[in-house]
Design goal:
mainly alpha; single chain; about 425 residues; about 0% strand
Length: about 425
Amino acid sequence: MKKNKLFFYRDKTIILDKIKESFSSVLPISLIVLLLCFTIAPIPSDTFLTFIVCVLFVVVGMGLFTLGADTAMTPIGEYVGTGVVKTKKLWLIIPVFFLVGVLITVSEPDLTVLAEQLSQTINKYTLIVSVGVGVGLFLVFAFLRSIFKLKLKYILLFFYVSTFVLSFFVPKAFLCVAFDSGGVTTGPMSVPFIIAIGTGIAGLRSDKNADSDGFGLTALCSVGPILSVMILGLIYKPDSITPSATEIQTIANSKDFLKIIGKSLPNFMAEVGIALAPIVAFFLVFCIFGQKIDKSNYIRIIIGILYTYVGLVIFLTGVNLGFLPVGKLLGEEIGKLSYNWILIPIGMIIGFFVVAAEPAVHVLTKQVYEITSGAIPKKALSISLMIGVAISVGIAMIRILYQINIMWILIPGYSIALI
């Protein structure tokens, strides 16, 4: 009985710690939004109050998700990476890794959001499957690179040069979409899995470069969606992209808010359930026919999956009902100003702090810290990512305001990063 109480207390303490971490991450971006609402970009009071409530949703959701990623998604990825590679059978490893890449990507909420935004231009299921195939193929390439000890720099250089050559034949309207699609491999489902698979692969090598070669899977997998969407652009050849509208709910009182929650929650529950189902099914099959996992770890992973499910549902509810509508309204209000150049510094500040509110970043920094035995501190990596995103958002705002061709930014940017 005492043992059960101790386990419950420890689990409860971990949940509270995770929620505290997520609160400190979400607080800065929330304060920035509040400051803008009370100064240069006022928004309707009902939308403002909804945002305040949704901040709590995001905090709790992110806390539960990161706990779920630690206890379920990361171990599953490591088990799969280690167990499959141990067989040393390429005829088995290649199709399994391809399937894992497709399943992870299809289950990525970020990809669903992107596909919904483009549903008026291209069938969303066509886009989702195409991107999934792209990630699956490049996860196989990433595995082969690690096993055969090939230089990541040269492989990335080859594929990105090929991408830029292909971009000259792709409709301009589709270029931004293609490069945006690469971001699905940095989503909350993909990051824990892909990095953990790399860790599992690296753990089977004993040479000095094993740990460093375990990284780079996400970078290489990001190329797959870009090429896949470019190929779709060559097939569909759209003249323009018409994004779906973001619905802004009108709320008069708390009853209206509860009605909207009641209406939206089942959709998010179904969406996350569909997203997690392929991964859970794959894991169960893997346990039956592949690597055996002891009962305590198995139960812990199942509990972690539940944390992941509940966390993502709450997180997506908060983001879609509060953060997206407010972001749209703020962009419209600031864009109307005679001094709309202020979007550049505001975008950079928001970009800096929004990284801290991204669940995948918490997973990434923790895994890198553990894999490098503390050589790369979590705080240093987080700050580097925050600065990088801030600069990128600032450049993106300049491009939008002054209508700069995106290739003038992408080609020099990738060249500097790779060379």
